[in-house]
Amino acid sequence: MDAAHDPAIAGLDVYIVGGAVRDELLGLPDSDRDWVVVGATPEAMSRRGFIPVGGDFPVFLHPKTKEEYALARTERKSGRGYKGFTFHTGVDVTLEDDLQRRDLTVNAIARAPDGRLIDPLDGQADILAKVLRHVGRAFVEDPVRLLRLARFAARFHDFTIAPETLTLARQLVQDGEVDALVPERVWQEVAKGLMTQHPGRMFQVLAATGALPRVTPGLNFDEATLTPELEAAAQAGLGLAPRFALVCRLSEAPQDIGRHLRAPGECQDYARLLPGVLDALHDDDAPTEANASASQLRWLDLMERCDAMRKPARFLELIDTAACVDSLSVNASAWQQRVQALRSIDAGAIAQNLQGEPQRIKQAMREARLQALADIGP
């Protein structure tokens, strides 16, 4: 519904802020809209049917659109970390006050319902110049801003980071503020950064500021190796789990990184399995008549370790992920044929013919699988 004809906000002083305005100015597809309400009280919002959802400060959902409306607020540092703030949301807080507390100038632009832009920090100039610049010295008070800076650097890969902003980001690390970040909050930003078209840049920025070993302990990020692999994954349209597996693949214990970050189980599984897939593919010589049986044994061992028969989509995505590392050694269509061949085996018939003999059933299944691989050839 057009804001000008929306009875829920009629008479309110409201503005679209942040990412939606930035992306519109960049000519990017519409993103979710966030609103700021100036001069209102929580009681007034509730009377209009808005649903309160904020914890530390008043945020409301629109009664129909469910878009977020936050009361204009200021903040004051009162403790360590990203939760160490006291917020003020009185009716005396102006829109400019609210914009002053944001992270980057490109995210501190507001649009009024009549289309007018409010840009007290000259974020439009930084958009034109393609620069990511902090709003103020308060940048060093919130370690999440460093994570967001790295993520936006990945999303807007053609933007530079202002040198003074990088200096403040390093100060966040040196002052120990990043140590107050909980793994779940780090994962939220890492996951978003991984799903950009240039995910490697997020880790480059974290490494350049000294934050990488603090927020992702154990991660070995070799920029020259992993950045092109991550870009290949993005170009191939691979999902979050494959990209996470790639970024962890040079680390000594990839699965431990996922556990530390509280990453979803699927991401942890991909990180655990990918090194084994790569090792198996690297060790697999080009099949010939002389070594065909050995190759089929290696293929079967790999597919069984990865549970390819029960989870074929995951296994084939791991193969696609391996192709981002070494495309010349991976024949994805051949692996699809192999998976299909194994899944076409009538396991029920084998089990019925050998009722009460579990060891023979297991052996017969393995022989049937090897024969199926032999039938389709190299």
Automatic annotation (TrEMBL):
GO biological processes: RNA repair; tRNA 3'-terminal CCA addition
Gene Ontology MF term list: ATP binding; CCA tRNA nucleotidyltransferase activity; metal ion binding; RNA binding
Limits of the Poly A polymerase head domain: 14-133
UniProt keyword list: ATP-binding, Magnesium, Metal-binding, Nucleotide-binding, Nucleotidyltransferase, RNA repair, RNA-binding, Transferase, tRNA processing
InterPro entries per record: CCA_bact (IPR012006), NT_sf (IPR043519), PolA_pol_head_dom (IPR002646), PolyA_RNA-bd (IPR032828), tRNA_CCA-adding_enzyme (IPR050124)
Keyword ATP-binding: yes
Annotated SUPFAM superfamilies: Nucleotidyltransferase, Poly A polymerase C-terminal region-like
Protein name, entry field: tRNA CCA-pyrophosphorylase
The organism's taxonomic lineage, starting at the top: Bacteria, Pseudomonadati, Pseudomonadota, Betaproteobacteria, Burkholderiales
